[in-house]
Amino acid sequence: MGGPNLEVFKFGMYIMFPIAIMYYYGTNLDKRFSVPDFWPKPEQTHRIPFEREEIKSELERLRERRLFLREKRLGENQGKSGGGSGEGSS
């Protein structure tokens, strides 16, 4: 039917098509598949403390935050349970 030239052309297409696809999707990946502001900036992330003083201050900060949230949660629970005691008792 086609002869040797057709076979060479088909073989070339079989080889070049996957290479062309890989080249197209493999070049300029930073602009094509990037999501802006996906990773946080270094100043927005938490730095892990390694020094003894930094660890102590971080533990103190976490303890204060935990106690603050506990007090806030207990205040909300007392407000909810204290307001409904006198209603509907007649």
- Mean pLDDT across all amino acids: 84
Strand content: under 5%
Please bin the fraction of helical residues. Answer: 55-70%
Taken in chain order, the helices and strands follow as HHH
Amino-to-carboxy terminus distance? 102 Å
Total number of helices:
3
What structural category characterises the helix and strand content?
mainly alpha
Instruction: Please mark out the parts with pLDDT under 50 across 5 or more consecutive residues, or reply none.
Output: none
Overall spatial form: elongated
Q: Which radius of gyration do the C-alpha atoms yield?
A: 33 Å
The biggest sheet, with number of strands, parallel, antiparallel or mixed sense and barrel status, is: none
Pfam family, one: Pet100
Subcellular location: Membrane; Mitochondrion membrane
GO cellular component, one term: mitochondrial inner membrane
Membrane topology: Single-pass membrane protein
How would you describe this protein?
- The longest helix has 31 residues, at 52-82.
- The protein has three helices and no strands.
- It is 64% helix and 0% strand.
- It has helices at 4-26, 29-32, 52-82.
- The protein is mostly helical and 90 residues long.
- The model has no long low-confidence stretch (mean pLDDT 84).
- The chain has one domain.
